[in-house]
Write a structure and sequence with these properties.
The chain is of the alpha+beta class. The protein has a domain of about 100 residues: Alpha-Beta Plaits (2-Layer Sandwich), CATH 3.30.70. The chain is built from five helices and seven strands. The strands form three sheets. It has a three-stranded mixed sheet with strand order 1-6-7. The longest helix has 20 residues. Bound molecules: iron/sulfur cluster (SF4) (2 copies). One iron/sulfur cluster (SF4) binds next to helix 3.
Length: about 180
C-alpha cells in the first residue's frame, strides 16, 4: 500500500496584528540594548578594535629580505598576490642593473588567509594587527611595490580609544579599554 501524505494544519501568520506585534517586540529589544550599560556596541571611530599580535591584518613586504622565490604568489588561493619584474641596481656591481621579481598585493581580492606570510621562507612578509584602512577608489587597493613596503596609515589611532572584547566570569563578553600593549 502506498504511503499516505500527512497534512498538518499550520497557523496562519502575517496579519496586521502579527506585524504590529513583531515591530513592537523589535523596538523593545532595541530600547533594552540601547539603555543597557553593559552593551558592547563599539563607537567607531571614537573607539576602535585593538587586535592582539598575530592577528591577520594588512600585509607589508620587507623587500630587502625577499629572495624572489614567488612562493607567496603561488600559494595565494585568491590570486591576490602577483610577482612583478623590476630593474634595479645590482648591489654586488653598482654599475650594473639586474632584473628581479617581487610580490605585490591586490586588496580587492585578498581574503587575509595569511598563507603568503606563513609560506615565506625568509619572513619577508608580515601582518599588521588591523583591517580598518580606507581607500578612495578600487584601483588604490592594488598596491604598487613601493606602497606594499609601507605600513598603511590608520587615522583612527590618533582620534580614538583602543578597546578589546574580553570574557568576564560574571558579565560574560564585555568591551574594555585596552591598557598597555597587547
Ligand atoms: S593573505 Fe591570503 S589571500 Fe591575501 S595575499 Fe596572502 S595568500 Fe593571498
Ligand atoms: S615568499 Fe617571501 S621571499 Fe619568496 S617572493 Fe614571497 S616575499 Fe619574497
Amino acid at each position: 500500500m502506498p504511503p499516505r501524505a500527512v497534512t498538518k494544519s499550520v497557523r496562519k501568520t502575517g496579519g496586521l496584528f502579527d506585524g504590529v506585534k513583531s515591530n513592537v517586540e523589535a523596538l523593545i529589544i532595541g530600547v533594552k540594548y540601547f539603555i543597557d550599560p553593559k552593551r558592547m556596541t563599539m563607537f567607531y571611530p571614537k573607539e576602535y578594535l585593538e587586535h592582539r599580535p598575530g592577528y591577520r591584518g594588512f600585509i607589508v613586504l620587507k623587500k630587502e629580505v625577499c629572495i624572489s622565490c614567488a612562493a607567496c604568489a603561488r600559494i595565494c588561493p585568491s590570486a591576490a598576490m602577483k610577482m612583478v619584474r623590476v630593474s634595479e641596481v645590482d648591489p654586488k656591481e653598482p654599475a650594473k642593473q639586474r632584473q628581479k621579481q617581487y610580490p605585490v598585493i591586490n586588496y580587492q581580492r585578498c581574503i587575509f588567509c595569511g598563507y603568503c606570510v606563513d609560506v615565506c621562507p625568509v619572513e619577508a612578509l608580515y601582518h599588521l594587527p588591523f583591517h580598518d584602512v580606507t581607500y578612495e577608489s578600487l584601483g588604490d587597493m592594488f598596491l604598487t611595490l613601493d606602497l606594499f613596503q609601507k605600513e598603511p596609515l590608520r587615522p583612527v589611532e590618533k582620534e580614538g580609544v583602543p578597546v578589546v572584547y574580553e570574557v568576564d566570569e560574571t558579565l560574560g563578553l564585555v568591551k574594555r579599554e585596552r591598557k598597555g600593549g597587547g
